[in-house]
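for the recovery benchmark. tokens below, seq after
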């Protein structure tokens, strides 16, 4: 099972979904968890493996349409929140500029923020389901508030003498739960340990 940071996967998904299908692509190495980005419009400066698009060792990150997160998601939201406007919304998606008109409708009905929340939750669920279907483990980052709470507890218990600030918290590793302190695993100073 390959592991990937959910935030990295989410960024790659947004990149792929930011254009028409096949305009931008991203691939996940099932060996390393690294994500490679390629675009028909914007040259990418990183080195891309030669077999990226042909090897079975890479999974293509899906486009939002592959996960029914485009038009179908918008219409599901309208069906739940504004059923009286369903036909009108459906008409929007028959021509260009649909999302602009769709968002104008939501704003005029006072549910635009509700849509953003619904969309974000739906995208997250769909991506996590995609990961489960493809045997990918999502690694979560510790949120800054939670990280600072743990630091306060550690300082209070005198486990941590070195000052760790939010600015220094940026050097956390992928799983987001490493801390540098004065009481390492072997009693030495400044050793890395999991918290």
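predicted aa per position
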């Amino acid at each position: 099972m390959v592991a990937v940071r959910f935030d990295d996967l989410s960024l790659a998904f947004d990149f792929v979904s930011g254009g028409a299908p096949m305009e931008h692509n991203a691939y996940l190495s099932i060996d390393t968890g690294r994500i490679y980005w390629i675009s028909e419009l914007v040259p990418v400066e990183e080195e891309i493996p030669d077999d990226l698009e042909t090897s079975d060792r890479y999974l293509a990150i899906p486009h939002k349409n592959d996960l029914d997160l485009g038009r179908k998601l918008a219409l599901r939201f309208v069906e739940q929140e504004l059923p009286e406007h369903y036909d009108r919304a459906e008409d929007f998606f028959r021509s260009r500029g649909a999302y602009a008109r769709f968002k104008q409708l939501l704003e005029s009905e006072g549910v635009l923020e509700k849509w953003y929340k619904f969309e974000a939750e739906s995208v997250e669920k769909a991506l996590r389901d995609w990961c489960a279907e493809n045997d990918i483990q999502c690694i979560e980052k510790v949120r800054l508030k939670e990280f600072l709470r743990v630091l306060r507890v550690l300082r209070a218990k005198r486990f941590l003498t070195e000052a760790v600030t939010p600015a220094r918290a940026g050097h956390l590793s992928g799983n987001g739960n490493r801390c540098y302190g004065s009481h390492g695993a072997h009693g030495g100073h400044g050793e890395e340990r999991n918290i």
